[in-house]
């Protein structure tokens, strides 16, 4: 209501100002000021009315809202994340076969895989993820990954590299 009365008061002041002096007697600045005030009053009224007619303004209610409580309150244990067990490269048949060789044979296997362009790690004789990836890639390109799926097949694969 206050905003409507302000708009009405602004309009009344504008009308009184127009009646007080002829428009042609005013300077250009006074006329532009009057136009600006009239435009501000009109835009303010439009914005005020659009806010009051919005769905959010109409849905507001002074009545309190009551929500029904659930019929029974029981505690339910939350489900917890359980990651799937990961198969470690250290427990694969290829790792078991690799680790059964002597240290010099293991370094020889790694150096042969380096020469073939499959192994890019240090020649340390230790079986790790890089050795496993190289073994799997080389087997996939030559004899097939089915061969290193068993310990006996992995022995055959590594024996071919040592010779």
From TrEMBL:
Signal peptide start and end residues: 1-25
InterPro entries: PGBD-like_sf
Domain of life, source organism: Bacteria
SUPFAM superfamilies listed in its UniProt record: PGBD-like
Protein name: Peptidoglycan binding-like domain-containing protein
Keywords noted in UniProt: Signal
């Amino acid at each position: 209501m206050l905003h409507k009365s302000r708009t009405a008061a602004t309009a009344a002041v504008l009308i009184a100002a127009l009646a007080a002096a002829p428009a042609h007697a005013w300077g250009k600045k006074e006329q532009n000021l009057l136009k600006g005030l009239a435009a501000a009053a009109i835009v303010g009224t439009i914005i005020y009315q659009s806010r009051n007619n919005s769905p959010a303004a109409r849905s507001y209610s002074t009545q309190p809202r009551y929500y029904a409580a659930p019929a029974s309150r029981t505690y339910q244990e939350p489900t917890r994340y359980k990651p799937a067990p990961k198969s470690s490269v250290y427990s694969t048949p290829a790792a078991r076969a690799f680790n059964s060789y002597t240290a010099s044979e293991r370094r020889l296997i790694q150096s042969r895989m380096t020469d073939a362009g499959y192994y890019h790690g240090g020649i340390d004789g230790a079986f790790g993820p890089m050795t496993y990836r190289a073994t799997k890639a080389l087997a996939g390109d030559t004899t097939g990954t089915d061969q290193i799926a068993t310990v006996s097949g992995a022995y055959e694969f590594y024996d071919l590299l040592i010779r």
